[in-house]
TrEMBL record:
Uppermost EC category: transferase
Gene source species: Maribacter algarum (ex Zhang et al. 2020)
Biological role: Catalyzes the transfer of a formyl group from 10-formyltetrahydrofolate to 5-phospho-ribosyl-glycinamide (GAR), producing 5-phospho-ribosyl-N-formylglycinamide (FGAR) and tetrahydrofolate.
Protein name (database record): Phosphoribosylglycinamide formyltransferase
Phylogenetic placement of the source organism: Bacteria, Pseudomonadati, Bacteroidota, Flavobacteriia, Flavobacteriales
Residue stretches making up the Formyl transferase N-terminal domain: 2-182
């Protein structure tokens, strides 16, 4: 059994899409959805979909081990930031190396960094008359939007596209690719890593 914990700050349409994707997969559980906004729409979606949703405030996140303790109890194989806008504190990054992934609504390294989220990103893409944009799924490190890239997908942008139209194209890419990438990462994490010390070639294989 694999556990996913999701973090989101707003609407949570990606969260809902991911929950639907794994609904009929008996080996994957959405262990919980954590949000930093008390009135985030994502909590309504959790209620509707019967998934544990939990709100936390800034103090709990940055000044206590509260979220770390909750994560320890949920035992995530993967922590997924799906529209989560706060920087992840270093204690969480240290405890979950290569287990926290984020989706960014642009082709990083373009249009990343502090303040670059949601429609701010799409507005910048439009202002710069880009002919394409896309999504980036990446590991999370201590800097905003700078961890190793796992996946990118692209879509064309026309000068006639409004910010909302760009957002729609990007969301379509997110809905298509994010659950697939998460599933692939979970499968990779389940393949046994055989350390050299475990292999006894004189006996013809892996030590029991
Ligand atoms: C998504 O487009 C996601 O890529 C973006 O927020 C949106 C959340 O939409 N994330 C960022 O901008 C992070 N910097 P949703 O709440 O409907 O899933």
């Amino acid at each position: 059994m694999k556990n996913i914990v999701l973090f989101a700050s707003g609407s949570g349409s990606n969260v809902e899409n991911i929950i639907h994707h794994f609904h009929d997969k008996p080996n994957v559980t959405i262990a919980g959805v954590l949000t930093n906004k008390r009135d985030a729409k994502v909590l309504d979606r959790c209620n509707k979909l019967k998934v544990n949703g939990l709100y936390f405030n800034r103090t709990a996140f940055y000044d206590t081990n509260c979220i770390l303790n909750i994560l320890k109890s949920l035992q995530p194989d993967l922590i997924v930031l799906a529209g989560f806008l706060w920087k992840i504190p270093s204690n969480l990054i240290k405890n979950y190396p290569n287990k926290i992934v984020n989706i960014h609504p642009a082709l990083l390294p373009k249009y990343g960094g502090k303040g670059m989220y949601g429609n701010h990103v799409h507005q910048a893409v439009k202002d710069n008359m880009e002919t394409e944009t896309g999504i980036t799924i990446h590991y999370v490190n201590k800097n905003y939007d700078e961890g190793a890239i796992i996946h990118q997908s692209r879509t064309e942008v026309s000068s006639k596209d409004s910010v909302e139209e760009i957002a729609k194209k990007v969301h379509a890419l997110e809905y298509k690719h994010f659950p697939e990438v998460i599933e692939k990462l979970l499968n990779e994490k389940s393949s046994p890593n055989i350390a050299l010390g475990d292999v006894d070639l004189s006996q013809g294989g892996v030590k029991q």
